[in-house]
Amino acid sequence: MEWRDRGILLGLRRHGETSAIIEMFTPTRGRHLGVVRGGTSRKIAPHLQPGAQLDVAWRARLEDHIGAFTVEPVRSRAALVMSDRLALAGLNAVTGILSFCLPEREAHPSLYARTESLLDLLGQNDIWPLAYLQWELGLLEEMGYGLDLSACAVTGTTEELIYVSPRTGRAVSAQGAGDWVDRLLPLPDVLRGEGAAEDAEIAIALRTTGYFLEAHLARALGHKPLPEARARFVDAFSRQL
């Protein structure tokens, strides 16, 4: 059994004395693990950094075996993030969340394309937080927990949509909130792709998407907590406001 693809390295861990098990995300194979022989060597280890773009070939005797990767570097993102705290936190959040939520060996080509485009913006801190927020919305959609912010779930109106139902992920208007107002999540304009997308508004929006990642997606995966890397990114971003 063998295949070849190009993808993003999500993470790795040491395996034995000289090898490493790497976790790749590719458009046709999804999240896929494999052993890299000599992965801890001076020749290969510098290329095995989370976020790196790699050309990989996977081979195993049987399809359900972990198999082995051979890797060729395509693009490293390490230089973009090592001197930029926000970029490093953002990269760790993306790779951590994907490793956390993606089922193994299930293709998500649309999410892969979104992820590669997002990582290519690393270091552009004036636009990256907004791009990251849009990526989280796309991730929720891909995983089956997308938000419906087109109209009020109570009245059907498209005016004064300022809340999100924490149960359904649907928008709620000021009029439709009623006695439930204290239990609803904020719906800043940026979540609907409107307004000036100020950083303070993005921070509020990230609290809303974070709720659905934690209370819906993570719960569906067995009540596992979200990777701490996401909270560290949100904290690093919020400290700059």
Which terms would index this structure?
single chain; 241 residues; alpha+beta; 5-stranded mixed β-barrel; 3-stranded antiparallel β-sheet; 7 helices; 8 strands; 35% helix
Shape: elongated
Question: So how many helices?
Answer: 7
The radius of gyration is 20 Å
Major sheet = 5 strands, mixed, barrel
Q: Whole-number average pLDDT?
A: 96
Portion in strands: 15-25%
Order of helices and strands: EEEEEHHHHEEHEHH
Helix content: 25-40%
Spatial strand order of the main sheet: 1-2-3-5-4
Structural class: alpha+beta
State the separation between the terminal residues, measured CA to CA.
Answer: 51 Å
Question: Strand tally, please?
Answer: 8
Uncertain stretches of 5 or more adjacent residues: none
How would you describe the overall organization of this protein?
- This protein is of the alpha+beta class.
- Helix content is 35%, strand content 22%.
- The chain has seven helices and eight strands.
- A five-stranded mixed barrel has the order 1-2-3-5-4. Strands 7-6-8 form a three-stranded antiparallel sheet.
- β6 and β7 form a beta hairpin.
- The longest helix has 22 residues.
- The termini are far apart.
- The mean pLDDT is 96.
